[in-house]
Amino acid sequence: MVHKYGPHIFHTDKKHVWDYVSRFIEFMPYVNRVKAIYDGKVYSLPINLFTINQFYGKSMSPSEAREFVASLADLSISEPANFEEQALKFVGRGLYEAFLKGYTLKQWGMAPTELPASVLKRLPVRFNYDDNYFSHKFQGMPKSGYTEFFDKCLRHDRIKVFLNTDFSHDMQNEFDHTFYSGPIDSYFLYSEGRLPYRTLDFVKEVHDNDYQGCAVMNYSDVDVPWTRVSEHKFFAPWETHQKTAVFKEFSRAQEPGDIPYYPIRQARERTLLSKYVGLANEVENCSFLGRLGTYRYLDMDATVAEALDAATISKYLINTGQKIPAFFVSTALG
What we know:
The chain is of the alpha+beta class. Among the domains are: 46-130, no CATH class; 162-195 and 264-319, NAD(P)-binding Rossmann-like Domain (Rossmann fold, 3-Layer(aba) Sandwich), CATH 3.40.50.720; 197-253, no CATH class. The chain contains 9 helices and 12 strands. β3 and β4 (41-44) form a beta hairpin. α1 (15-22) crosses α9. It is globular and about 65 Å long. 25% of the residues are buried. The mean pLDDT is 94.
């Protein structure tokens, strides 16, 4: 079971989303337990009580660790202006430099001082030994893979799928409405400029037996060029293999022709996006959705939830003779 475009564990708190995807394929229980290498040692992620005790060579209780980490915080920072200041106020310099600074620099290609503080608010620190990377109620892996999921999802008499077919505006003349999930700047032929993304390069290696003993190993040292290594046999523990496939993951700026993965969404990019949102709101009979169509980072469950909402809203508007909106979220800028 190889995830060609990087590991994708399905996780959600939305029962209707879980029920929907489970209609098409069996999901096997799966818990993502990520490890990280820093300065020649292996640690547990996300930062939890085991990580803190191991890193500082202590055996603290949850309350002791909470007080200890609070004592490390840089209290001189009242309102963090960027990612680094948020981290220093949150966990102190030691944990920040070990597990956040180098990885962030490699992943985003910019210093943590250039990233907004809001990015770090999504990273949990736990004062117990819970090393489940996600905290959602429903977590799992499709037993026979995502390809089968999409194949079954698209099996319908009124659905036609055309592969290896580039989008052209002439296609819209054949339909009453277009739901466009490609890059929003591409739709407008980059008339206002290109919205920047980070892209990923995957270097595949095949080894005998096991390579690293876990599904995902982060590499926090900045002098290691890859961000993480995924060993795909561990994403499907119900399978048995004598060999193992691993992928080293390298992050870099997207160039024309590269797959866009992560939108940058800094102030300059948001200004550019606002121009495209304005153009999109003027297009007749076309809606923009998905990660690329709205230039947002979306997990799979959020993507499915928004798609279900778009289908429900569109059906209602069609039945009542109303116009389908360009965006189904309050704003693509949010």
